[in-house]
Amino acid sequence: MKKSIIVGITGILGSGKTTITEILRKWKFKVISCDEIVHNLWKRNNILKKIKKIFGEDIEKDGRINKEKVREIIFTDAIKKRQLENLLHPMVFDEINKNIFDTKKNGGIIFIEIPLLFETNSEKLFDKIIVVSAPQKKIKERLMDKYSEKDIKNIWKNQLPLALKKKKADYIIDNSGSIKKTEENLKRIVDELLKNLNQ
After folding, report:
1. What is the pLDDT of residues 68-101, one digit of tens each?
2. What pLDDT is stored for residue 1 in this prediction?
3. Computed from CA positions of residues 95, 101, 105, 110, in that sequence, does the dihedral angle turn out positive or negative?
4. pTM (global) more than 0.90
5. Which residues are bridge partners to 8 per DSSP?
6. Which residues of 77-88 are buried (b: 16+ CB within 10 A; e: fewer)?
7. Distance between the two ends of the chain, CA-based, in angstroms?
8. Which strands sit side by side in the sheet containing 30-33, from one edge to the other?
């Protein structure tokens, strides 16, 4: 049977998970992104109908869901937040499990970027977990052009603290420096994974 390694990539919003997935794709590794799966789900008509059922018809504007408004609502309404999670999470995990199954069957390494890896108790799916890290102050600076300070606090409040995630990680990548430095850190991890794969 061919050997496989299933690697989870996580962190908090703004820590640089996307940077890591972009580098891995550049290096021709198979990468699955939960954010991309969710993004594609939002485009499906049957999902849009269900989202409108949860949040009301006025959540749609010009044929698109107003995600900022959804974000505002789920920060203050735990029931609607749970309903949205109950709608999207099973479909996201279906896609993840399908890719894990394929990788285990065919061998090789797959990297799966999953922001709420620990929050959804998904550790058991992965052989190794990478946590992407940077100082909170630096992360906040990165996010300020896209989110309000209130939004950042609310999003972080719904995620495990970075310090806790780092304690649970097999590998930690410090993403506070240059891209070159991040690539070097990631290469060390990838080299070790490839070595384990080929043993």
Report:
1. 889 889 888 999 999 999 999 999 999 999 999 9
2. 64
3. positive
4. yes
5. 112, 129
6. eeeebebbeeeb
7. 13
8. 30-33, 108-113, 4-10, 128-133, 171-174
